[in-house]
Amino acid sequence: MQHTNVWTSTNDETQTKLKRTSDSITKDTNEGLNSGKEKKSKVATILDFSRRSTLVSQKELNSMIQNLVINASLPFSLVEHEDFKKLVTVGYNGCRVLTRKTLMKNIMVQHENLIQTMKDAFSKVEYLTTTADCWSIFKRSYLGITCHWINPITLERVSCLLAIKRFKGSHTYDILAKTMESVYLYFNISDKVIYTTTDNGSNFVKSFQ
């Protein structure tokens, strides 16, 4: 009995088709496996990110503490308090509380940068107005001055605090006048202030005569 070989030259086309189909299935399977590996890799990356010791850098934490002390008028000694240190180290694992000396240094740098920013802003406007008031508390006298102007580009009103200065002695007109003038000279705006709003106290009225 003679057997017929199905993989003869007469079936070459069928054999080629089967081979191509097999190669296609193998390729799709490999691509699926590779895709699964990529997805697992992405998931692992996200999980690794979530397991980081902290999502806040030391620099960002220092800035937040600094702003807290300034905006809430807290004492510099806050950063030396053991409970505050514990709060930060537990809440921001891997970070530490900056020292009091570093905090004070950073605030001074921030203050200098702010002053320069204000001076740059004043140099770009032609006219300014101010408000002034003085008061006493705990046997100490202070003078507060605010400044207001119109932004030449946006035409929006802008306001800022120029100074809260302590001065000794009575609230006499000459002391008030000298103190206000010293603030204007410091910011180079003496020739730009066109109006100043105060109360109607005789000392303020006389200081402008």
Structure commentary:
The chain is an alpha+beta fold. Among the domains are: about 55-105, no CATH class; about 125-205, Nucleotidyltransferase, domain 5, CATH 3.30.420. The chain is built from 6 helices and 4 strands. It has helices spanning about 10-50, 60-70, 80-90, 100-125, 175-185, 200-205; strands spanning about 130-135, 140-150, 155-165, 195. It has a 4-stranded mixed β-sheet with strand order 3-2-1-4, covered by helices on one side.
- Highest CATH level, the class of the domain at 124-206: Alpha Beta
Radius of gyration: 37 Å
- By CATH, the architecture of the domain at 124-206 is named 2-Layer Sandwich
Shape: flat
Q: How many E strands?
A: 4
Q: How widely separated are the two ends? A: 135 Å
What percent of the residues sit in helical stretches (DSSP H or I)?
40-55%
The helix/strand order is HHHHEEEHEH
Mean pLDDT: 79
**What is the makeup of the main sheet?**
4 strands, mixed
Q: Unreliable segments (pLDDT under 50, ≥5 consecutive)?
A: 1-10, 40-44, 46-52
Widest beta sheet: strand line-up: 3-2-1-4
How many helical elements? Answer: 6
Per CATH, what is the topology of the domain at 124-206?
Nucleotidyltransferase, domain 5
Region (Disordered): 1-37
Biased composition (Basic and acidic residues): 14-30
Protein name: Zinc finger BED domain-containing protein 1-like
Biased composition (Polar residues): 1-13
Helix and strand topology:
Elements: H1 12-50, H2 58-71, H3 82-91, H4 100-123, E1 128-137, E2 140-150, E3 157-167, H5 173-186, E4 193-197, H6 202-207
Parallel strand pairs: 1-4
Antiparallel strand pairs: 1-2, 2-3
